[in-house]
Amino acid sequence: MADVSQSGNRVELKGFFPGELEGFVTSLGLEPYRARQIAAWIYNRGSIDFAEMTDLAKGVRTKLARRASILSLKVAARSGADDGETVKYLFELPDGRRVESVLMRDGRRRTLCVSSQVGCPLDCTFCATGRMGLLRNLSAGEILDQLIYVRRELRARGDDLTNVVMMGMGEPLLNYGNVVRAIRLMNLDYGLAIGIRRITLSTVGYVPGILRLAREGLKVGLAVSLNAADDALRSRIMSINRRWPIHELLEAVRAYRQRIDRRVTFEYVLLHGLNDSMEDARRLAALVRGIPCKVNVIPWNPVEDVAFVRPPREAVDRFVDVLRNAHLTTTVRYSRGVDIAAGCGQLYIRPDAAATASVV
Ligand code: SAH
Q1: Which member of 100, 142, 171, 267 is catalytic?
Q2: Could you report the per-residue pLDDT of 23-43, keeping only the tens digit for each?
Q3: Domain boundaries along the sequence of the chain
Q4: Ligand 1 site, residue 300, Cβ cutoff 6 A
Q5: How far apart are CA 298 and CA 269, in angstroms?
Q6: What spacing in Å lies between the alpha carbon of 324 and ligand 1's midpoint?
Q7: What is the CATH number of domain 74-356?
């Protein structure tokens, strides 16, 4: 069995595949297939209490409760945006650190934007999360539990979660193992059973991670935060570009696209006066020509003490028109929940609050 994590003398089960739990399950005197039943309770039904697992004998449930635990994040705060469609959750992890997730409703779609790290090791100048630095990676269980929690809440109201975007705090490809494990568990039918086409991972452009993901054969949607169409500017606002410049990034994107056969999304944060001219749009269109893709334009969301300017509506429209005239599928993401700092790039937790231990 893989290194099932122990808390106290209990084995933490959330984050493991049934195959990995078989050893533990048989050590309790259970048949190996029980591992899958337990996984379905944990992931699919969101159970956090062994007593609920009614297809297991009562004695077995008691034994499990003594020997194992099921991680469950606490909600430290929840805020709803003025639009009534966006909810930001502040989750508290077992060590007291905190991350945010954002639920967005759009028609019948219910999308949860989940975090993969506490903070972020990158330092993109326009993003709030980067200013926290990396505090730690989330475990697969901690990534999944954001979804399990919100889905349980939605289901209690006769609603359900439909889509997942890994666009919250952190760079998912720099927490590769846990993120891929979490995605598999989201997708599997005894897991959260969310179709792979409804799962998208967004990356800053970490090339080795993109290439590795291409080989994974997961068919997860890829979004790439391009944000500039020339290396000079991209290196200035995203230091990752100094190591993996645009042409290397696009080569990796092409390789991914070919392996996975899904359109890639390019995200492009619009910073007024820096990257939002018509010339910039033309350069962007030329750059991605030939790659089956869509472009997601995100007018910059304000971040405290950061001196960029959100472009006026006309600048956004002009930029988008150039892309559309170049036959690029283009959407504008006027981020949801900007009033509650739940928009793209606004997720941030003050270091003292992030490190505050739970008082429970
Ligand atoms: N680290 C990953 C996942 C985070 S996704 C990545 O970089 O893709 C967050 C998205 O929001 C990225 O596309 C990022 O470029 C964008 N973003 C960051 N700060 C922003 C801001 N202040 N306003 C609008 N978009 C922002």
Answers
A1: 100
A2: 999 998 999 999 999 999 999
A3: 6-69, 74-356
A4: yes
A5: 5
A6: 22
A7: 3.20.20.70
